[in-house]
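Bug: token stream looks shifted between consecutive jobs. Job 1:
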Amino acid sequence: IGLLYILYTSFCIFSAGNVRLVDGNNSCAGRVEVFYSGEWGTVCGDYWDLTNTAVVCRELGCGETSNTMRAAHFGPGSGQIWMDDVICSGSESSIFDCSKTKMGDHNCRHSEDVGVICSEPESFSFFGIRLVGGSLCSGRLEVPHGNTWYTVCDAAFDQQDAEVVCRELNCGAPVQVLGAAAFDKGDAQMWTQEIQCRGDEYQFALCPTSLSHNCSHDSDVSVVCAVRLVGGNSHCAGRVEVLHDGQWGTVCDAGWDLPDAAVVCRELGCGEALSAPKSAHFGEGSGPIWISNLMCTGSESTLMNCRLFGWGIEANHTEDAGVICSGKFT
């Protein structure tokens, strides 16, 4: 699977997996931000030079280096400052391969956030994975390569692979991995290489692949994801909705508190829980109200691991629960 590029023109963000440029005036200029431990953060300008910039430009597919911009030229970032004292030789394929202090260790402020300006390539290809045959968050997995969609073989496809799929689609955590063309056979070409995600990748295109399998569309893999946030101003804030019995529904705010919200934020890779709004703070949902009186300790890895009293309750959508997490997926 080739490197996945995504251009968000309305937010002035250009991303290649775990590195992105923010707040520039084109896709190859902006403040350098890196994705680590479930959160985007900035890079300090200490020791930063054109060699480092060349690595970032190459990693983003942006051609030759033009300039290095320090002192928050593209505006100060927010949240974590992940990297400091970065020293690249220039041959690295990623900024993560360069010498640097321990991730998160720094003596900087956001007024020192570094930026780069690279030359733009002639063209880019923009696409993303998709689930087909069910809904946005459930269905047969299809991945792009070149100008062609491919279905994925179910051989060795596991929970870690599914976690990356659900994360990239902003669909929470995976409920099920289904083989044998559970959402019908695809008519795309067959991607037969084995996918080997660690589970913490931000995008599916970053997962390694290995030996090929002799597969047919009888072995198309499907993924069903579980939790999502709706109605917020970022992917890490909104009304909590869960997928059950093939239908999205809300969570009643009876007993809803920060430990519950902490589990949702962790499950979505959105950092810490800042608040647990009640009373349909992010608007009223529709359809079933699936869960009430959740009793999470806060240490659970998924909301489905918390104590709950069955599925489907009589309640009003004016009581829909929400969360606001510290992270920002954009």
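Job 2, same session, no restart:
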Amino acid sequence: MLSDCTPIATLPTADVARARKFYEGTLGLTPLQEAAGGIMYRCGEGKLFVYESEYAGTNKATAVSFSVTDKQFDEEIDQLRKKGVTFLTFEYEGMEWKDDVMVSEEMRAVWFSDPDGNVLNVGTEM
């Protein structure tokens, strides 16, 4: 059954070289392999496939979430800020913000865009 399978997140890009610079240089991902017009990255126990597509950046909702522990959160967010990542804020019922970090009793989270406009999220485990 699919519930036993590990999903692979897929993100479109208009420019594989530009995406590679962001995912490897900014996010620190290591390529696992190159195939079918894209690059596969390992992320924890999952994978992320970034591939060339004319539809890059058309999804305006969160495309990929990275789950970190509460202890890791501040370090990860500081590293992203140092690399020039700007976090997004938005109105959504029940969300409270401390500057550009969403905070609640259950979690903390940030959202940001890759160079193609795909929305990524880093949040603490619930």
